[in-house]
Every structure is written in structure tokens, then in C-alpha cells.
Design a protein that fits this description.
Blueprint: H1 12-22, H2 27-38, H3 45-52, E1 56-58, H4 60-70, H5 74-87, E2 126-128
Parallel strand pairs: 1-2
Helix pairs in contact: 1-5, 2-3, 2-4
């Protein structure tokens, strides 16, 4: 008999949304808390939305502040971010859509590319800060 498989780490987007909603916060309020804690005044609710929809994956800087603001262990967020990166851009192409053939892998920008969206208009997962 084989031992049960270890549970897979949660995806970051749903985890962030659950933690935020458990506090009764809007995305705007979460962004304001992150700005106040980090001293970076430019984070908007749009970026929080991108993280929750997994259009982008926050980097180490924001993961640290998310851990502080949401009172979640950093290791939990880091494992979820790694699992999300491994899974690729699950939501970026949208339901029933596939990534464009020949496009750079999600989260990567090639020479002369600034990131953002592909020529087809579909978002790619990007790591912020």
C-alpha cells in the first residue's frame, strides 16, 4: 500500500482572495493596507486583482508584505506562489482559449518585449517586483 500523496500547495490567487475576504476587506482596502505597511504608495487594487486572478504572481518583496498584512506565514505564500508559477498561466488565456503558438512562455519577455499582453491581447503571468 502506498502512502497518501502529500497535499499540493494551494494556488496563490485563491489563497490571497480567501485571506482578504476572511478579514472582510475589499481589494481597495487590501491595497491601501499594503501601501501603508510597505511605504510604497503606488500599489492599486488593480494589482491585487491581478494577483488574485493569477494574471501576475507577486515577487518576494510583495509576498513579504502580504504575509505581514494578511497575517499569513510567509512560507505558505511562497509555496503557493511557487505552485502557481509551476502551473503556468492557468487563467491568462481564459476559459476555453489556448495560448498563441510561438508565444514566449508565460511570465517571460523576449528581446524588445516589455511584458503585458501578447499580440493577440491575452495577458501573460508576470512576476512583480
Amino acid at each position: 500500500m502506498t502512502p497518501p500523496a502529500a497535499p499540493r500547495p494551494a494556488q496563490l490567487g485563491p489563497l490571497l482572495a480567501r485571506c482578504r475576504l476572511a478579514r472582510g476587506w475589499s481589494q481597495q482596502h487590501a491595497a491601501a493596507e499594503l501601501c501603508a505597511a510597505s511605504g510604497v504608495p503606488t500599489l492599486s487594487r488593480h494589482e491585487v486583482s491581478r494577483w488574485e486572478r493569477q494574471r501576475r504572481v507577486p515577487g518576494g518583496f510583495w509576498l513579504g508584505w502580504l504575509a505581514v498584512v494578511l497575517d499569513v506565514p510567509l512560507v505558505t505564500l511562497a509555496e503557493a506562489a511557487a505552485a502557481t508559477r509551476r502551473a503556468g498561466s492557468t487563467g491568462a488565456a481564459g476559459p476555453g482559449r489556448t495560448a498563441r503558438a510561438g508565444a514566449p512562455p508565460a511570465g517571460r519577455t523576449g528581446p524588445g518585449r516589455t511584458g503585458g499582453t501578447t499580440r493577440g491581447g491575452r495577458a501573460r503571468v508576470r512576476t512583480t517586483r
